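Last lecture ended with a question: if I hand you only a sequence, what can you say about the shape of the protein? Today we answer it with a concrete record. The protein is DUF2165 domain-containing protein. Below, first the input exactly as provided, then the predicted structure, then a couple of comments.
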Amino acid sequence: MTDRHHTDSTPRTGLPLAAAVLTGTVALYVSLVAFGNITDFDTNQQFVRHVLAMDTTFKDPDLMWRALTSPGLQDTAYLAIIAWETVAAAVLLAGTALWAVGLRRGGFARARHVSTLGLLMVVLLFGVGFLAIGGEWFSMWQSKNWNGLEAATRNLTVAGIALVVIHLPGAAGKPKGGNGEPKGGDGE
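The predicted structure:
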């Protein structure tokens, strides 16, 4: 399909569109999480406090030395989480906008780069922060009331899928053939 605004070198569908939608989905989700933590500060503040205090775990003496019971340290950790979420959301929203521009004009390198940064921020937050540090170091898995491992796994999975999709060869536009010429078909 060729018109004065769209050529075969600027695909509007396929992997670039999927990359845009996935990046936008994660951007919206992380934006809402950050917004919720800012506007309903106390709910997840209590979550972070209980996880770090380890007060609803099995209270194994061999592990309890890890507990952080200082409200100041707990609140600092929570504020750091909110700040990280906010920056990740901003980066992902920028990545989504760059995908949208690329879908209209072609060129997805900046969109891929910015989206990768934002998605890696989400992977670090939920993979390192919640699964590894919260889940294992602070034994969050032992808590019936303050266990965020399922949600963290879900968030890590969606961000990971988005990362894989945006790094598939066709997500950056029409792949080139061996001679530098575009391949036939729709670029996938």
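Comments.
1. The longest helix spans residues 71-105.
2. The chain has one domain: 15-172.
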